[in-house]
Design a protein that fits this description.
Elements (H helix, E strand, L loop, with lengths): L1 E17 L10 E13 L6 H17 L4 E6 L10 H17 L3 E4 L4 E8 L7 E5 L1
Parallel strand pairs: 2-3, 3-4
Antiparallel strand pairs: 1-2, 1-5, 1-6
Helix pairs in contact: 1-2
Length: 133
């Protein structure tokens, strides 16, 4: 798994068009304030160990900015090999469930869609972290 973690003062995602033909209909247009973002690239072999590290790192970034909000965004452009879409979706759903159980407002951008993204990212070094695990 490879993940680009960002902290956003404001993060907007709006559905642009469907990327996976079997993705359920979704027309969300949401803005989240004061949120940790995780741009997730899941790879073959990723499982519970990577899921746990994803959750811990999201909580760590959010904590650096005293936030309990986070957004998981599937971003398949951080590596060469990709875990199949359904397994990635399931992994992200499990991570969201774990974050919510820990008291976080956790969201996943519309899975299977390209989205228009708007971000207000502060210049602090901890607002941009890349991890591979």
């Amino acid at each position: 798994m490879r993940v680009l973690f960002l902290y956003a003062k404001s993060f907007r995602f709006r559905v642009h068009h469907k990327a996976l033909s079997d993705a359920p209909d979704d027309d969300r247009d949401e803005t989240v304030e004061n949120a940790a973002l995780a741009f997730v690239h899941a790879e073959p072999g990723d499982g519970s160990e990577q899921e746990t590290k994803l959750v811990k790192n999201v909580k760590w970034v959010a904590g650096k900015f005293e936030s309990k909000r986070c957004v998981l965004h599937y971003f398949s452009h951080l590596g060469e090999e990709r875990l199949d879409a359904e397994a990635t979706r399931a992994l992200m759903e499990r991570a969201r469930t774990r974050l919510e159980a820990a008291g976080y407002d956790a969201r996943i951008t519309p899975f299977g869609y390209f989205c228009d993204l708007g971000m207000d990212l502060p210049g602090e070094s901890m607002a941009r972290v890349f991890k591979a695990f």
